[in-house]
Amino acid sequence: MSYTEEIAAEEQADHPSLVKGIAGALLGAAVGVGAMFGFYTLAGFRFPLLGVGIGILTGFCAKWLGKDGNSNLGLISSAIALVAVVATLYLMYGEFPILSLVSAIVSASMAYRIASN
Predict the structure, then answer these.
(1) Residue 25 and residue 111 in contact, taking contact as beta carbons nearer than 8 Å
(2) pLDDT at residue number 117
(3) How far apart are CA 62 and CA 91, in angstroms?
(4) Which residues contact 30 (CB under 8 A, 6 or more apart)?
(5) Contact 79/27 with Cβ under 8 angstroms?
(6) How confident is the model at residue 66, as a pLDDT?
(7) How many Cβ atoms are within 10 Å of 14's Cβ, its own excluded?
(8) Which of residues 11 and 117 earns the better pLDDT score?
(9) Residues 61, 46: Cα–Cα separation, whole Å
(10) Is 11 exposed, middle or buried (0-12, 13-18, 19+ CB in 10 A)?
(11) What is the pLDDT of residues 74-113, one digit of tens each?
(12) From the DSSP assignment, how many helices (H) and strands (E) are in the chain?
């Protein structure tokens, strides 16, 4: 590979990518779900507001791997965070407690705000 081909490959790797951003959102959501469910398993204590952490991790990882934030990535990250929080709360409670709706909404809004900026 010539020097100019290497430079072109590096420049291509630095461009924003929606696919990489989505992969980052999925990675962040998986880490957040693991942390939230792990806390519940180890401590035996249900703390639904940890779902906000899922949203934060989802947004940061999406922006980090996507190299840039935009509204499309924000919307996708928001949806991923919302599904992850609802699924985790369902695993913890055996149902989705309606009072935890606040945690799910805040999580989705945090993921959107972080990933879209």
Answers:
(1) yes
(2) 87
(3) 24
(4) 84
(5) no
(6) 92
(7) 10
(8) 117
(9) 25
(10) exposed
(11) 999 999 999 999 999 999 888 888 888 999 999 999 999 9
(12) 5, 0
